[in-house]
Amino acid sequence: LDAASAKDGQDMKKKSKFRRGLDRVLTAMSNYENEEGKSPTNQNNESGEESGGGRNGGVADNGWGSSLEVTSEVRDRPIKLHGTTGILHKKSRSDDDVITEDEEGERPMEYGPAASYRALMEGVDNMCTAEGSNVSGMATTWDVAAVNARDEFREHFEDYVNDIWENDENNAFDKFFLMVELPFTTMRKLSIPIPCDDYYCRGLVAMAITICPLWFGMYMILERKVNLFIFGGFPYIEIATITAGIIGFFFAKFAPPEDKDLSLNVSVPIAFLGFVIAATWIDAIADLLVKLLTLLGVICRIPNSIMGLTILAWGNSMGDLSANMTMAKKGLANMAITACFAGPVFNILIGLGGGFAKLNSETGQEYAEVDLSPSINVGFGFLVVNCIFVMVAGLIVNRGHIPKGYGYVALALYVMYIVASIVLQYYDPEGGDDDE
After folding, report:
1. Spatial separation of the C-alpha atoms in residues 332 and 308, rounded to whole Å
2. Most CB within 10 Å of its CB: which of 100, 383, 415, 425?
3. CA separation, residue 21 to residues 15, 129, 250 (Å)
4. Global pTM?
5. What's the rounded Cα separation, in Å, for the pair 253 and 247?
6. How far apart are CA 339 and CA 345, in angstroms?
7. CA–CA gap between residue 271 and residue 192 (Å, rounded)
8. Do the Cβ atoms of 66 and 116 come closer than 8 Å?
9. How confident is the model over 60-82, as pLDDT tens digits?
């Protein structure tokens, strides 16, 4: 029992900075005092910690309105933020602030709106920084934080442009197309927050958090024909942009610089947001690519069957191809191989399953007849052959490692599939009728 109690005590001491920061934020935004709702034993213990200059450094966790007296006879006075008597002024205090001394008379304890505001800011600061980090956004003012974020933002783009021209791996062909792509790359950077290593820039992440709702609204208009700027008379995107701007401004002040670690409790939600926005970019680019390839097929008078086997298939898979190749180049081979198989499985099971379920619900039919063309049957055959090659080469022969030579085998299989499908399309009477 004593060992269990000691362990519980250690767990309480190891309370994360994020949890402590979140507790201080919620308490500071309320009208409760730190001791409310706790047993007398806990109150005495925590008061003893605070009096000794414990975790709060002599600042009590009391709510913003805990010291305001609310009665039917006395009207609440407005709280001034700025000015010589404002609670944000460094050298003055409001009338509601109360300063007491602990039992030893060493550290003053502060109560009231000014102390609650400082506790709120310190709580946000603790939420952004990683455990063990000595970086604090409380050491800088809002103006200095904005200037620092702007300088980091400008330096990031200067380094990116210089890397295009000074990187020895880029030949003249790569430099030309990278510069042509630079405006679109800039738009993607400004709308996709990336808090990961080697890509993290405090000013850029803050800007992307602010702008990403605007891009999402444009995406919904272009791809889904839904106007979220005014949907049902409610400005969803405008409100989301204002909220994101406030979050981005707080991020610019309290987030650590590039050479420091960002708290996982903050970086993970931002990374998930960046994933969603990046998926919308991939979907929009892939859709435009398919439309462009379709236009080229019409101009060149390519039959629909050949368009589906080649150009449209390549266009629909271009997003997966670029993502998988990027992961493979970064050394994430297992993730790239898994995505190669997980993508088609998702499309077949979820895409076909959801499509047929919706068709049956709308038509009331219990089943639907599907005729498989010869090219689809050939595709199934080559897919089975490819899976067999992967199992033999990766599991049986090389014990979990796929050799480089398998890449040439896979390319040869795909060329054979394209040739066989085109031949069947031209010599199959049903395929000719479909083209007409």
Report:
1. 31
2. 425
3. 10, 10, 14
4. 0.64
5. 10
6. 10
7. 9
8. yes
9. 444 444 444 444 444 445 555 55
